């Protein structure tokens, strides 16, 4: 299963490098939204809960673009049939798609987080980097796990562009709350961790539950 | 043995039932309320070729997809080398090479990358990729993305993909579509009668399909019109 997941992931990353269909769109969307907030709020800088909310809501909306595209190539070019015709566990497709989404989100954040700090954030990011990386990693894992599941669910439906955001965003409310709450104390002028362990534990629990749930049900999503 | 629909008996074509490559008995498949296949019963010996004939919408592609394990039957039984679909579906992929309407290859990957990906999925040694590319005469274009190749070249690669894992059963849906005569000749050792594999062949080239087949199955609106060696009138009636 791991070997097959590795093969699918390598293929997905190669296709993304070649076609540049998802990551550039997600990144551009994120940057545009930060610029819109910059001018829309008519403020040079944000801090606290507002800054954390803007950061995470924008990343979540960018993730919708990635989730909507993650099965597109399989649907359009017969990739799911090819996988079902191979002697591999179908769960390998979930693992590969979740891993690809995780990589896409990290790639977006490499650009988006410094841009957010530059355009909107009052306090600097330097003092919170290790903690922010931990929050981002756990948040991305949750988004990727739920995103791969929702993408598979929507892949064979006609209204998939509607179904992805309608299903994905409610599922990601706990991720949004935990990530924003964990990030917020670092975005105050008097930076410092506050309940960080609690929110990281919640994110970890969410990730574990959704990865296990997805592994359990993914097989049935690919049944005709 | 071939099941004769009209009489309800299996007609012998010279092999024991346990050795059947394909066994269908009363197979039924629906799409919602619409019946795509009903009452299809046929057996095919290993190494033999079954030609599936019928007009558009007769259920030919559906039949291939059931045999490939991509669709589950709604009634009746379908077995491929003894593995019942869908309960033992996991046994089927290693036995089956599927060449359908879609090449099941990625347009933005090269021929070599596509076949290497399929080799990894099937746990096949990468040396087979080189052999498969050579077998379909694509060495010089193997490192170009598929979107830059002609449809005929893509069809050759799709054939290479279908036989990459050396399956004993080939499910072929218009396998010579888009191929020029030279390319069709090139693929004969891989997917033709000379490949030594059991084949289920869907084709609108009735003369050629019957010429290659040991057994013919006629489908009309999802129903079995005949199975066995049809007389010309039965075939003509199928397309009327």
Would you give an account of this structure?
- The complex is a heterodimer of chains A (224) and B (240).
- With 224 residues, chain A is mostly helical.
- Chain A has one domain.
- Chain A has ten helices and no strands.
- The two termini of chain A are 21 Å apart.
- Chain B is α/β, with parallel strands linked by helices and 240 residues long.
- Chain B has a single domain (2-238), classed as P-loop containing nucleotide triphosphate hydrolases (Rossmann fold).
- Chain B is 28% helix and 28% strand.
- Chain B is built from seven helices and twelve strands.
- In chain B, strands 8-9-10-5-11-12 form a six-stranded mixed beta sheet, with helices on both faces. A four-stranded antiparallel beta sheet of chain B has the order 4-3-6-7, with helices on one face.
- In chain B, a hairpin with a 2-residue loop joins strand 11 (215-220) and strand 12.
- In chain B, helix 2 (111-122) packs across helix 3, helix 2 runs parallel beside helix 4 (151-163) and helix 4 packs parallel to helix 5.
- Mean pLDDT of chain B is 89; it is low at 1-18.
- Classes of the chains: A mainly alpha (224), B alpha/beta (240).
- At the A-B interface, helix 1 and helix 5 of A face helix 2 of B.
What's the architecture of chain B in CATH terms? 3-Layer(aba) Sandwich
Fraction of residues in β-strands of chain B:
25-35%
Largest sheet of chain A: none
Give the overall silhouette of chain A.
globular
Strands ordered across the widest β-sheet of chain B: 8-9-10-5-11-12
CATH topology-level fold name of chain B: Rossmann fold
Total individual domains of chain A: 1
Supply the helix-strand structural class of chain B.
Answer: alpha/beta
The termini of chain A sit apart by: 21 Å
Please outline the major beta sheet of chain B: 6 strands, mixed
């Amino acid at each position: 299963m791991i070997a097959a997941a590795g093969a699918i992931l390598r293929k997905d990353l190669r296709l993304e490098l070649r076609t540049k269909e998802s990551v550039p769109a997600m990144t551009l969307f994120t940057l545009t939204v930060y610029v819109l907030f910059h001018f829309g709020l008519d403020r040079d800088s944000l801090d606290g809960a507002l800054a954390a909310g803007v950061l995470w809501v924008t990343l979540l909306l960018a993730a919708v673009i990635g989730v909507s595209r993650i099965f597109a190539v399989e649907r359009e070019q017969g990739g799911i049939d090819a996988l079902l015709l191979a002697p591999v566990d179908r769960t390998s497709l979930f693992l590969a798609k979740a891993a690809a989404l995780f990589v896409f989100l990290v790639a977006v954040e490499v650009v988006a987080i410094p841009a957010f700090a530059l355009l909107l954030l009052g306090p600097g990011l330097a003092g919170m980097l290790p903690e922010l990386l931990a929050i981002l990693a756990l948040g991305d894992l949750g988004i990727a796990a739920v995103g791969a599941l929702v993408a598979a669910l929507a892949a064979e439906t006609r209204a998939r562009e509607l179904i992805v955001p309608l299903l994905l965003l409610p599922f990601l409310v706990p991720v949004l709350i935990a990530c924003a709450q964990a990030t917020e104390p670092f975005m105050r002028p008097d930076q410092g961790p506050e309940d960080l362990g609690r929110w990281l534990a919640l994110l970890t629990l969410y990730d574990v539950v959704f990865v296990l749930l997805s592994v359990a049900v993914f097989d049935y999503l690919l049944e005709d | 043995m071939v099941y004769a629909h009209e009489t309800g008996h299996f007609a012998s074509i010279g092999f024991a039932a346990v050795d059947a490559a394909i066994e269908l008995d009363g197979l039924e498949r629906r799409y919602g309320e619409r019946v795509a296949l009903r009452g299809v019963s046929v057996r095919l010996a290993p190494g033999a070729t079954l030609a599936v004939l019928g007009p558009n919408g007769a259920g030919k592609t559906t039949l291939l997809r059931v045999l490939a394990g991509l669709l589950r039957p709604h009634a009746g039984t379908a077995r491929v080398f003894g593995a019942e679909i869908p309960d033992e579906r996991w046994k089927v992929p290693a036995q089956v090479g599927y060449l359908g309407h879609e090449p099941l290859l990625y347009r933005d990957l090269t021929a070599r990358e596509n076949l290497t990906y399929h080799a990894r999925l099937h746990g096949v040694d990468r040396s087979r990729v080189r052999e498969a590319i050579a077998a379909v005469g694509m060495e010089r274009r193997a490192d170009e993305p598929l979107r830059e190749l002609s449809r005929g070249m893509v069809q050759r690669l799709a054939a290479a993909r279908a036989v990459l894992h050396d399956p004993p059963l080939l499910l072929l849906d218009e396998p010579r579509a888009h191929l020029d005569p030279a390319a069709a000749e090139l693929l004969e050792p891989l997917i033709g009668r000379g490949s030594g594999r059991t084949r289920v062949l869907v084709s609108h080239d009735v003369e050629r399909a019957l010429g290659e087949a040991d057994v013919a199955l006629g489908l009309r609106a999802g129903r079995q019109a005949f199975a066995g060696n049809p007389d010309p009138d039965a075939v003509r009636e199928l397309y009327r």
